[in-house]
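hey so i finally got around to running the thing on that chain from the lab meeting. sorry it took forever, my laptop kept dying and i had to restart like 3 times. anyway pasting the input first so we r on the same page abt which one it is
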Amino acid sequence: MSGGLDSGSVGAIAQELSKSLGGLPKVMSYTAGYDSLIPDEERLYARELTDHLGISNHYMALDKIQFFEKWEDPEYHFPEPIENPMSAGFFEYFQMVSSDCRVALSGEGPDNLMYFQMWPYIKELRRNQQWSRLATETAWFLWIRPFPWLGISSRIQSFAGKVKGQSGLPAWIAPEFIKREGLEERWKACTGPGLPRERHSSRTRAHASMLLPEWTNLFESQDPGVTHCTVEVRYPFLDLRMVEYLLAIPAFPWTYKKKLLREAMINKMPDRLRLRPKTPLSADPIAAKIRDRGVQWVKNKPLSEQVCDFVAPSMLDSFHVTIDVEELRPYCLDLWLHGV
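ok and heres what got predicted. didnt touch it at all, straight out
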C-alpha cells in the first residue's frame, strides 16, 4: 500500500468485498518506505488511506538496510544478477507479509494500461469518420491539458542525445565484450517498448508496454521460489479481462490522468488521495546511501578477475569522486557472481 491511486483502489475494493462476506478473508496492508534517508511521505498517505478503509497497516523502514547486506546468505540470493545493492529489504519485506498472509495483492498495471496518447486516438476518430467526437474531444483536450513546453523540451533533449551519437550503453562495459556479443545492436533492439506485429489502433504504447521483459522479471522475482516465503502475489489489474477492458475504452477522457480509476473511487477513497497526482520517490535511496557512506569504501573493493571479462575497471574511476548509481552495477554483478 503506497498511499497512491493504484494500490489504494485495490485495497478499497478488497475491503469492500471482504465486508460483504462478513469480514473474511481479512484484509491487511503493508508499506515499505524511508524515514530519514530521503524525503518520503508515502507512510503518511498509506496510513491515512488504511484508517479510512478500516484496515491495519504494517510499515517497514528501509533506511537501515546496508549495501550488500546478507548477500552471502543463500536465503537472500536472487537466481539472476540484480542491480539493487539494498535487496535485503526486499526479502525482509516478504518475510513480514508472510507472517500474516498467504496471498498478497499488487497494484501494478494501471501505469501501463492507462498510458495516455492523444494523437493515435485522434487518428482513429478521423479514420472512423467520427467528426463530431473528433472536434469536441480535441477541443476539450486542448482546453484542459497543461502547457506543452515540458513535453517539447524533453523531446529536444532526446533528439540532441541521438545527434551526439549516445548509444546508451554504460561506458564501463568492456569493449571486447561489447564487440564479441554484438551489444550495440542488441541494445538498440531492446531499447523502448517494441511494437507488436499487430498494433493497437489507438493505444499503441499502452498495448506494446505489456510486452516489456520487465513483467517477466517482476513476476519471477516475487515467486515463492525466489522469496522463500509462502506468499502468492496476485495482480488484479493484470487479469486478462481487465487488460482487455482497459485497452478497449476510449483513450480520452478515460485514460487521461487515469480519469476512469479516479471516477470509480469516488466515495471509496478520500478525495485528497483519490485526486493526488502520481508521486515517485523524491530521490534515489541508493544515491543517498552512497552519500552517507562516502565513496572511499568502493576504492577498497577491487573487482575480481571473473567480472573483468565484462567490465572495464579503468572506466569506473569517476565513481571514486562522484556519485553515480549506474556505476555501482559492476560491483553488484561481482558480488552476485561471488555468491554463485
